[in-house]
Amino acid sequence: MNSWYRALHAEILKLKHTMALRLVVLIPVGIALLIIAQYISIAHYMPGHHAHTAAKAWFSLGRSTFVFWCLLMLPLFVTLETALLAGLEHNNRQWKHLEALALPRNAHYFGKWSMAVLMVICAHLILLALIPVAGWVLMFAAPTLGIAGVPALGPLVGPVAGSMLASLLMISLQMWVALHWRSFSVAVSVGIFAMVAGFLIGRSHTWGKFYPWSMPMQVFGKDAHNMTVAIWLGSVAGIVVALIGLYDYLRRDTA
After folding, report:
1. Angle formed at CA 128 by CA 53 and CA 15, multiple of 5 degrees
2. Cβ partners under 8 Å of residue 156, min gap 6
3. Which residues contact 94 (CB under 8 A, 6 or more apart)?
4. Under a CB-based contact definition with an 8 Å cutoff, are residues 111 and 15 in contact?
5. Residue by residue, what is the 3-state secondary structure of 136-178?
6. pLDDT, tens only, 6-64
7. Which pTM was predicted?
């Protein structure tokens, strides 16, 4: 455990003043701005479109924000962050130096994997915290939407936590790809292709819950069965794939 903590701490230090760390904040802020623009547009072109109660309006805003996040931006975010994490060593050929340190090789792998998971968790929490800000802006910019009063975010906490768990499989797969191939282009290409496929597969009631890049979005759907499958399969399979990725990392020469 001490080795893992030291490796994770080293990853945090290496990420200081990098674009990878800035994206944890910038992408959720960008999502919030897009949602505000979308809702203002809805209020302008569909003036009769509003929720019946303030609580329903807050939940609708939060759900729309996270569906957009999970459908389009989360896969891209995971792709970029895992590729940038692996690139810290790939670009400067630092693997041999890293593995010469007094830490087991598996600590370096789990340090990077844990850092990727931590960044996804932080991005979720920042986006959740931005929903009240977006709501307060919309109270004045689009009052016909019915958003008013104290933000009712309680019903969102469970789905947000579930989407974090459901994203573990996607994170593990992208981390495996990013560490296995030195090329940044390969890791990004795989992630973008998978994201585009997820945009299509995620709409399928039958297959959406089984596709790693669409599992987080399933948590915000109306089907409780799909939600349960996505959370359990995403989290359990995510751990299994992380261990397979560790095996692949340990048996390779990273020079």
Report:
1. 170
2. 59, 62, 63, 66, 128, 131
3. 88
4. no
5. HHHHHHCHHHCCCCCCCCHHHHHHHHHHHHHCHHHHHHHHHHH
6. 767 777 777 787 888 899 999 999 999 999 998 888 776 665 555 567 788 888 899 99
7. 0.89
